[in-house]
Write a structure and sequence with these properties.
By secondary structure, the chain is mostly helical. It folds into three domains: 58 residues; 162 residues, Up-down Bundle (Butyryl-CoA Dehydrogenase, subunit A, domain 3), CATH 1.20.140.20; 100 residues, Histidine kinase-like ATPase, C-terminal domain (Heat Shock Protein 90, 2-Layer Sandwich). The protein is built from 14 helices and three strands. Strands 1-2-3 form a three-stranded antiparallel β-sheet. A hairpin with a 2-residue loop joins strand 1 and strand 2. Helix 5 packs antiparallel against helix 10 and helix 11 packs parallel to helix 12. The longest helix is centred in the N-terminal third of the chain and has 29 residues. It comes from Sphaeramia orbicularis (orbiculate cardinalfish).
Length: 343
């Protein structure tokens, strides 16, 4: 019996396989130069067909992915990453690369297994299927990579890791689009929430490990990979306070002052990236709080944690909010605009 992923992949990938064949027929009356161009075109289409055939085969032959999915991932603590991070001879970089080479296929296989468990109507969505294919392709690229024995191979592995990071940079957007398209077909929100919780958490871990390994090559005395040796919470908070105040002034014409109390001189090893995600959202919500805000209506309290639920459509009627959203969207992706709490 074919797996659900194989059934879903058949119509789309089958058409892809057939498309090159119809373009390689050369008329008998063609000139020599035309034949030469046609031969080159045939070779290109043949290579494309082989690549697509390999992709199709990977959907039907899942034994390697199944075997990897049965393995448990090896988790590393922040302390392990920090204290094994630097050595004078560069051995730490080879050790990190070997760990990634072994660990990434396992974690990716877990995610592929998660895609297979989706309800059929969701798994058939072209955008969701495209993300599924990205994970399968990444798995095979990592598994097919040779053992890492020296710095030359490790340098090639770094290029592969960077390529995969670039290929997967839009996965969250694609998942959001795919599930938005399937929204009316979602019967059990719990299945969707569990899938996205696991997938997004796993994706964050994979990208942090990959980014950490690439950052080990940088010569920065204050950092070990992506870990800051002496992180100052006060400095990071001040940076995002300035950002949130400027955003608030743009939105409302005024912004509250922020005073930082506590152990303001504290410094400790930590990864700045999660703080850069969380702090601006906390500060924006705090600055937007109103004495007459009304809070969250009781009839939507149970929905506010659902991925597909949002009150953005209602707020879009406010022209000030709409203009702010357009400005922030055009200026970059540092942080989302100020919007309703938890929605």
């Amino acid at each position: 019996m074919l797996s659900g992923a194989a059934c879903r992949a058949r119509p789309r990938l089958g058409c892809l396989l057939l498309s090159p064949v119809t373009k390689t027929v050369t008329p008998m009356s063609c000139t020599g130069s035309h034949r030469l161009r046609s031969t080159s075109s045939m070779q290109g289409f043949s290579e494309l067909a082989r690549e697509r055939s390999k992709t199709v085969t990977s959907f039907y032959n899942q034994s390697a992915i199944d075997a990897s999915a049965e393995k448990a991932s090896v988790r590393l603590t922040l302390a392990t990453l920090l204290y094994s991070g630097k050595s004078p001879d560069g051995h730490h970089i080879l050790s990190s690369a070997k760990y990634l080479h072994k660990e990434l296929p396992v974690r990716i296989a877990h995610r592929i297994k998660g895609f297979r468990s989706l309800p059929f109507i969701i798994g058939c969505n072209p955008t969701i299927l495209q993300v599924h294919e990205l994970y399968i392709r990444a798995y095979h690229m990592l598994v097919d990579f040779p053992p890492i024995k020296d710095q030359d191979v490790e340098a090639r592995f770094c290029k592969l890791v960077q390529q995969l990071l670039d290929d997967h940079k839009d996965v969250v957007t694609m998942l959001a689009q795919g599930f938005r398209e399937c929204r009316k077909h979602v019967q059990d929100e719990t299945i969707l929430r569990n899938f996205l919780d696991t997938t997004l958490c796993s994706r964050l871990g994979i990208r942090m490990l990959a980014t950490h390994h690439l950052a080990l090559h940088e010569d920065n005395p204050d950092f070990v990979g992506i870990i800051c040796r002496r992180l100052s919470p006060k400095k990071i908070i001040e940076k995002w306070v300035d950002f949130a105040r400027r955003l608030c002034e743009h939105q409302y014409g005024n912004a509250p002052r922020v005073r930082i109390n506590g152990h303001v001189a504290a410094r400790f090893p930590f990864i700045p990236l999660p703080l850069d995600y969380v702090l601006p959202e906390l500060l924006k919500n705090a600055m937007r709080i109103s004495d007459r805000g009304g809070g969250i209506p009781h009839n939507i309290v149970d929905k506010v944690m659902d991925y597909h639920f949002s009150t953005a459509e209602e707020s879009a009627q406010d022209p000030r909010m709409s203009n702010l959203f357009n400005n922030i969207t055009n200026s970059g992706n540092q942080s989302s605009p100020m919007h309703g709490y938890a929605c």
